[in-house]
Amino acid sequence: MPSIRPILAAMTFAIALLAQPIAVSAQSETPNAGDDPVVARVNGEEIRHSAVMVMAQTLPPQYQSQIAQVYPLLVQRLVDFKLAYAAGQAEGLAGDPEVKERVAEQEERVIRETWIERAITALITEEALQASYQAFLAANPPKSEQKARHILLETEEEARDIVAKLDGGGDFAELAKEHSTGPSGPQGGDLGYFTDDQMVPEFSTAASALEPGQFTKEPVKTQFGWHVIKVEDRRDVTAPGFEEMEPQLRQDMARQSVETVLSGLRESADIEITPAGASMMPGAAAAQ
Length: 288
Description:
Blueprint: H1 5-10, H2 14-18, E1 38-42, E2 45-48, H3 49-56, H4 61-64, H5 67-90, H6 97-123, H7 126-139, E3 143-153, H8 156-167, H9 172-179, E4 190-195, H10 201-208, E5 220-222, E6 225-237, H11 242-267, H12 275-279, H13 284-287
Antiparallel strand pairs: 1-2, 3-4, 3-6, 5-6
Helix pairs in contact: 3-5, 6-11, 7-11
């Protein structure tokens, strides 16, 4: 017989909710999130606003921005769940072997996740965050980036002809649109802002030697062809401040700390991978 668990899980999704009739009256707007009022009672047992909002977090993202519309349906679903729980209790399911096994599985998961989360949180101190930020600054020193256009041509002769046209007052962007063979040609040769390491060395060296508003008087040869380059702007780019970086730093440290925490547990444990377990691992067959 197919499992009904996926069906039960889907009952909290908005599509399933929207398919259900509304059996309770509800206001058009949700209660003040700063309060936690009782929103329903089931045989005298209270359901509070906070429980509704916890269920709302399980909805697909597009529905989480429409809580006011689905709020009464969420309340109805919680009412249904309370009734189903009470019915199961009345039938003595608390002592059912399957129920006990599934409760034990959930208990193990919750204890495991809570322990890991607390162990990781203990490692992410203010001092550790500041040290991580300083390491980031050291690895990402301020850089200068420039905004440039270029005209890519197949031969040096063609490139020198473009330089002559520019010396005669030609418009760089229009000449790029007309003559450049590069993908930026239709955009007037616009390359946007870039740092030296984003271009081939010959191109970066030539561009870095120009002041904003200048173009190369000598064509620049690279593996792609012959370039005439014009620098339009140059600016310094500094790293984001600590406050801006803090969420990312916390996330990165959390990922790194997981292995630190689990590695510490493994070092102090008696772990045995049995021959049967080893034979099931990827690559085991090829190694035999």
